[in-house]
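Protocol step 4 of 6: structure prediction from sequence.
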Amino acid sequence: MTRLPHVAVVGAGLAGCEAAYRISKCGVPVTLYEMKPGKKTPAHRSDAFCELVCSNSLRSAEITNAAGLLKEELRRMGSLVMEACDATSVSAGGALAVDRARFSSYVTEKIESDPLITVVHREITEIPKEGVTVIATGPLTSDTLAEDIVRLTGKEGLWFFDAAAPIVSFESINMGKAFFASRYGKGGADYINCPLNAEEYEAFVDALLSARRAELHDFDERELRVFEGCMPVEVMAERGRDTLRFGPMKPVGISHPETGETYYAVVQLRRENEEGTMFNLVGFQTHLAFPEQKRVFGMIPGLENAEFLRYGVMHRNTFLNSPGYLARDYSVGGERTLFFAGQMTGVEGYIESAASGFVAGLNAALAVKGEEALIFDDVTVIGAMAKYVSEGGAGDFQPMNANFGVVSPLEKKVKGGKKARNQALAERALAAVDRYTKLIKEFYE
C-alpha cells in the first residue's frame, strides 16, 4: 500500500488543530508546526495548543442564532474543537463558554496522541514551496511569515487591532453589592451582576474617558483600526455617553432576584473556569494602562477591591484580502496545494476559525487523495462563511462573525417572525449537514 505524503499545517490554534485533526481522520499523515513554546506573540501566555487569548465565550449555543447553529453543524460533523468545548464547558446561560485551561489541554492531548499527527515545535518563516500546506497561523502571525504571505499574495496585507477583557478573582468580588441572576429569567443564574445607578454610571463614564491608555509599542507606526465586534470599552464610551448602557452595560432584562429592583446600568461577569474562581468582565475589552484598569473598573459597585488575575490587553490582528484570492475550500486560487484557515482569512471568532480549519483540512486531505473538493452549500453557516471569504460583500472586505445575513435566504417566507425564520434556516442547514456528514464518513473509510 502506497503511503500518502504528509500535509503540512502551520499553527496550532483553533483553525490549525481542527485542520490537522480533520486531515488525520481522513487517513492522511500531517505535520503540525507550532512556534510555541520557543517563541510567543505578545498576546500568548500558555504553551498549550488552542490558547484562547480573548474571551472564554464562544457566544450563543442556540441554533436559532447563527453562531449557535455553526457549533451544531461542526458538532454533527465530528469537530475536535466542539468535542473539546462540550467536554470543558462552564455555566454561561444561553452561551457556550469553556474553562480555557482545560479546553487547551484537551485539544493538546488529542493532537499529541494522534498517531498520524507529528508535532514540530519550530517557527516557520516562509511558505513551503512543495507539497500541500495549510497556513493557520492566525491573526497574530509572526512578522517574518506575514511578510512572505504578502509577497506571495501580491497584495497589501490588511490588519486591525483586537482587545481582551480583564479577569478578576471571585473571592475579591463584593457580593454584598453584586448578585447572581439570569437575564429575562432565561437559563441559570450564571452571571454576576454589578448594578449602577445614574450617578455611578456618569462618574464611571467620566473616569473611563479621561483614563490613560497603554502604549502600542511596536504597533505605534500603524493606523489604529479596531474590529467592531471586539471594540475596547473606552472607544465605545467615546461614541456617546449612553453607548455603554445600550451595549455591554445594558440593564434590560436584569433584576435583583430577591427584591425585583431594576437598574440604570449593569456590568456582567462571566465564569472563566469550572471551579468558578475566576470571572471576566463581559464586553469590557480594553486598552487602558494596567493601573488605570484597576482604578476605573474599581469604581464599579462590587469591584472596589477586585483582584485582577489578568488585565485587558490590545494586540494586532492580521488578515488577508481574501475575496477573489481564496476559493470556497480556502485554497489559494483553487489550486489545492496551499490553503489558509482561521482569522487570517477574514472569518472572525473562535468557532468561525475552527470551521474554516475544518473545511481547509478536509479539502487538503481530499487533494492529497486525488478526490474532488467538497464545497459546502451556503444554506449552512459553515458554507456561507466560506463563500463570504471567497467572494466578499458590499464595500471593503472586513472580518465577519457568523450571522444569518450571509446565509442563503429561505425560498419561502415563514410566519412567526424572526425566531420562526431562524428556526427554519437552522432546520434547513442541519438537514444539509446530515447529508455532508454521511459523505465525509466515506472519506474516512
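Step 5 (inspection) to follow. The CA atoms of residues 87 and 357 lie 20 Å apart.
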